[in-house]
Design brief:
It is a single chain. This protein is an alpha/beta fold. Helices cover 33% and strands 16% of the residues. It has 22 helices and 22 strands. Helix 6 packs antiparallel against helix 17.
Length: 717
C-alpha cells in the first residue's frame, strides 16, 4: 500500500486496526411516524475509515448498513432532484441564484406538520421502535442549505457533538454535513416537514376584501427596515432577527411556519394576515446567501457584492434620496410594496408639484413623485428581468408610496415586449398625474382606497402646477371662506394647464356612527366631492346650519389620523373583511337597513344645503353679472347636486347587494388551502367578532398616542 492510500484510511489519532463487522440501521419518518414519504430515496453512509455504503431506502423509509468498521456512521442524502416537476426544474435551472434542490427536500415539502401551528411534536409513535430517536431537518443531511429555513428548536437533538469529534480526531474523512448514527442500534430520524406560510392573495383583477386587508399590511410593512444582519458586506451568512422587518417576516418567520402579526414597529394591536400553508419552495422567497455557491455573493466583490438586502430592498439614502420599497416573489406572484412619506427628503418631493412629462407613457405627472419613481425604476426592472416568469405583479403603496406605485405600475404596463399582468392597490395616495396621464393609464387595474377624511388624496389640487417654493408661501397668505374653502381643498377649480386627476377605482371607507359608542364602517364609491372631501362623520351628525366642507387645509389636520395605516387604514380594512365575510356567510346585504336610511337621510339633507347655497349665490350677483369665480362656484355646485343623485343610486345598489365568495376573497377562494387558511385566521381571538357586521376595533392607548403625533408633511400640500 502506498503512502497516499495509507493516509486516506489511517491517522495517528485512530486505532491502527479498527474492527469490522458492525451494523447500523436507520429509518426516516414524518411527524406522524410514517416512513412511506421517504421510501425509495437514495442515501450514502460513511463509516469511521471512510468506507461508503450507498443504497436506497425501502418502501417504509428503512435501510441497514452491515459489516462496517467500528464507530459511528455518517448519513447524508444529497442526491439532486430529477427535475421532473416544473416548479423545481425552474428553480434549479434559473440563471440567477439556481437552487440546489435535493430529492429529500422535495419529499419533505410533500409532508405535513402534526400540529397545525408548526410546533414540533414531542412524542412520535415511531419512538417505540427506535434505539435512538432524532429530530432532524433537511439542511442536516444536505451539503448546501443556505436556501433552507433556519433550524427550529428540537426535543431530540442530533449528535452534532459526535460529528464534530469525528472531524477533530480525524476518524475517517472530514464530514462537513450529515447525521452521525449510533452503531449497532436502530436510529429513527424524524424529518421536519418543509412547509412555509405565505400571505393569501387573489390574483384576479376584481376588487376583493381579502386583498384590501392583506395589501394594507404589506404596504405598512414597507415602512420597516429589511433587518439583515450584517446589513452590509456579509462574509459567510446572514440572519434576520429584527422583528418587525421585511427580512424577518419572509426570511425567518414565515419560512419557519410562524404566524407573525407585527408589521409596524409601534404596533400593539394584533392584525394577522391570512396565511396559506404551502410547500417551502412556493413561499415568498428571500434569495439565499452563499459565497461558496454564488460568486456574486463573495465579499471580494466590494460594492458590487450581492446579498438579500440589496436584492430585495431599495433605499436610496446614500444617493441623496429616501425612497424605500421591497420586492419578493413566489411561483404565482411578484409582490412590490412602496413606502410613503417618512422623512424630510420625502416631504420635499411631496411638495414639488411642478408637472413634468411622463416619459414612459403619456401626459404629465407630479415632478416630486416622478423623481422618486425614477430612483426606484432600475432596481425593479433588474429584479423582474431575473425572476419574472409569468407571475402576476401585485404592487401596493401608501401615501407617497401609492403615487410612486401608480407611476411604476403604468411604466411596467407600457414596457415593450413584456406583457406584464399588473394589479395595483393604493392607500391614501395623492393625485399623481394630469388628465392626459389618467386617460392614457385607463387600462391599468388600480383599486384606490380613501379613508374617511384623509387629507392627502385631496392634493395636489387639480390646478397646482408650480414648484413648492412658489405656491407654499402663496397658500399661507390665502384667505378663503364659505364654499370657497371646499373648492380650494378639493380642487374643483384650477388655473391653467391640464388638471391633476385621480386614477383608479375609488373605494371610500366611511364610518357610520349611531351614537357615542356604536359605529360601523361602510366601503363604497360615493361619487361626490362632498362625501369624498369631508369627514363623513360630520355629514351624518346633526347639522348646525353650516355648509359641510373639507375646510381650510391646515385646520383639516385635526383629521390627520385618518391618513395613518396602523391607526386607520388597517382597522378599516379589517372591519371591511369581517363585515363582508359575515354578509356572505349569512346571505344578507352588505349594508344594513339602519345604515341605509341614516346615510340616505344625510344625503338628502346635504342636497338641500347645496341648493340653499346656490340660491344665496344668485342674490349676490352684482349689476355686471356673475364674476368668473362666481360662475365657477355655481357650476361646481350644480355638478355636485348631480353627483349626489348618483351617490344615492349607488347607495341603493349597495343596500341590495349580496356578496359572493369571489367578492370577499377573489380567486383565492379556489385555492386548495383556502378553507384551512380562513379557519386558521378565524382561530385568533381578534378575528372572532360575532356581531352581524364588524365595526372598527377599538384603538389601544399606545395607538391613541401614536395618532396624536404630528402628521406626515405630505398631508400639508
Amino acid at each position: 500500500m502506498d503512502k497516499e492510500q495509507e493516509d486516506s484510511f489511517f491517522s495517528s489519532k485512530m486505532l491502527a486496526c479498527p474492527l469490522r463487522g458492525h451494523w447500523t440501521s436507520f429509518q426516516l419518518v414524518d411527524e406522524f411516524g410514517d416512513g412511506k414519504p421517504y421510501g425509495g430515496l437514495s442515501y450514502t453512509a460513511v463509516d469511521s475509515v471512510g468506507q461508503a455504503f450507498s443504497g436506497r431506502l425501502n418502501g417504509e423509509g428503512f435501510a441497514k448498513v452491515e459489516n462496517h468498521y467500528r464507530g459511528p456512521v455518517v448519513l447524508t442524502m444529497d442526491a439532486p432532484h430529477s427535475r421532473i416537476h416544473k416548479l423545481y426544474a425552474r428553480l434549479m435551472d434559473r440563471i440567477h441564484y439556481p437552487l440546489p434542490i435535493t430529492e429529500l427536500q422535495v419529499r419533505a415539502e410533500q409532508t405535513r406538520f402534526f400540529h397545525e401551528d408548526g410546533f414540533r411534536r414531542e412524542h412520535n409513535p415511531a419512538i417505540k421502535d427506535a434505539d435512538v430517536f432524532l429530530q432532524v431537518e433537511v439542511r442536516d443531511l444536505v451539503r448546501q442549505g443556505a436556501h433552507l429555513p433556519p433550524v427550529v428548536k428540537r426535543f431530540y437533538e442530533p449528535q452534532s457533538s459526535l460529528l464534530r469529534a469525528m472531524n477533530e480526531l480525524g476518524i475517517g474523512p472530514e464530514h462537513p454535513f450529515g447525521i452521525a448514527l449510533s452503531p449497532n442500534q436502530h436510529n429513527v430520524l424524524e424529518v421536519r416537514p418543509l412547509r412555509a406560510l405565505r400571505p393569501l392573495l387573489s390574483t384576479d383583477d376584481q376588487f376583493c376584501a381579502l386583498n384590501l386587508y392583506q395589501l394594507a399590511l404589506m404596504a405598512t410593512l414597507s415602512y420597516t427596515d429589511f433587518g439583515q444582519d450584517p446589513a452590509k458586506r456579509p462574509v459567510d451568512k446572514v440572519r434576520f432577527a429584527e422583528d418587525p422587518s421585511v427580512g424577518h417576516l419572509f426570511g425567518e418567520a414565515l419560512a419557519g411556519f410562524r404566524e407573525n402579526w407585527r408589521i409596524d414597529k409601534g404596533q400593539r394591536q394584533r392584525f394577522y394576515p391570512l396565511y396559506e400553508d404551502v410547500p417551502y419552495s412556493k413561499r415568498l422567497e428571500i434569495l439565499p446567501f452563499d459565497p461558496t455557491l454564488y460568486a456574486s455573493n463573495h465579499p471580494d466583490k466590494g460594492e458590487d457584492q450581492e446579498h438579500p438586502a440589496n436584492q430585495h430592498f431599495f433605499d436610496d439614502q446614500e444617493d441623496g434620496g429616501d425612497t424605500q420599497a421591497f420586492i419578493c416573489h413566489h411561483d404565482e406572484v411578484i409582490l412590490i410594496a412602496v413606502r410613503g412619506t417618512a422623512s424630510l427628503k420625502d416631504a420635499i418631493r411631496d411638495v414639488d408639484a411642478l408637472q413634468v412629462p411622463f416619459e414612459e407613457g403619456v401626459g404629465k405627472v407630479h415632478k416630486g413623485f416622478y423623481d422618486a419613481f425614477r430612483a426606484i425604476k432600475e432596481f425593479v426592472l433588474r429584479y423582474l428581468d431575473r425572476f419574472h416568469a409569468g407571475q402576476k405583479i401585485i404592487i401596493c403603496g401608501h401615501s407617497l408610496g401609492g403615487a410612486i406605485a401608480l407611476l411604476l405600475a403604468e411604466a411596467l404596463r407600457r414596457r415593450p415586449a413584456t406583457n406584464y399582468n399588473i394589479l395595483l392597490y393604493t392607500y391614501g395616495a395623492p393625485r399623481t398625474g394630469d388628465a392626459d396621464f389618467v386617460q392614457g393609464a385607463a387600462e391599468l387595474v388600480h383599486h384606490r382606497m380613501v379613508n374617511n377624511n384623509d387629507p392627502v388624496p385631496g392634493v395636489p389640487a387639480r390646478w397646482m402646477d408650480a414648484n413648492w417654493k412658489v405656491w407654499v408661501p402663496g397658500l399661507t397668505m390665502t384667505a378663503l371662506s364659505g364654499y370657497g374653502l371646499l373648492l380650494f381643498g378639493t380642487g374643483l377649480v384650477r388655473v391653467g394647464g391640464a388638471p391633476y386627476e385621480h386614477h383608479g377605482q375609488q373605494q371610500h371607507f366611511m364610518p357610520v356612527r349611531f351614537g357615542e359608542k356604536d359605529s360601523s364602517a361602510v366601503l363604497w364609491d360615493p361619487a361626490c366631492e362632498s362625501i369624498e372631501g369631508t369627514a363623513c362623520s360630520r355629514i351624518l351628525q346633526k347639522w348646525r346650519g353650516d355648509m359641510p366642507m373639507r375646510g381650510n387645509l391646515l385646520a383639516q389636520l385635526i383629521d390627520y389620523q385618518d391618513h395613518m395605516m396602523v391607526a386607520s387604514y388597517i382597522p378599516f380594512a379589517w372591519a371591511t373583511l369581517r363585515r363582508w365575510q359575515q354578509a356572505q356567510e349569512s346571505g344578507r346585504t352588505v349594508v344594513t337597513g339602519h345604515e341605509y336610511h341614516l346615510i340616505d337621510n344625510a344625503l338628502t339633507t346635504l342636497k338641500a344645503k347645496l341648493q340653499e347655497y346656490a340660491r344665496e349665490m344668485r342674490y349676490d350677483v352684482g349689476p355686471r353679472g356673475a364674476t368668473e369665480a362666481q360662475s365657477a362656484v355655481r357650476s361646481a355646485l350644480s355638478r355636485e347636486q348631480g353627483r349626489l343623485e348618483q351617490t344615492r343610486d349607488r347607495l341603493l345598489t349597495l343596500y341590495a347587494r349580496r356578496l359572493t365568495l369571489a367578492d370577499v376573497y377573489g380567486n383565492a377562494a379556489q385555492s386548495a388551502e383556502f378553507a384551512s387558511s380562513v379557519a386558521r385566521w378565524a382561530k385568533h381571538t381578534e378575528n372572532q367578532q360575532s356581531e352581524q357586521y364588524a365595526s372598527l376595533p377599538p384603538l389601544l392607548d399606545s395607538e391613541r398616542r401614536l395618532a396624536a403625533q404630528p402628521l406626515d408633511i405630505d398631508s400639508y400640500v
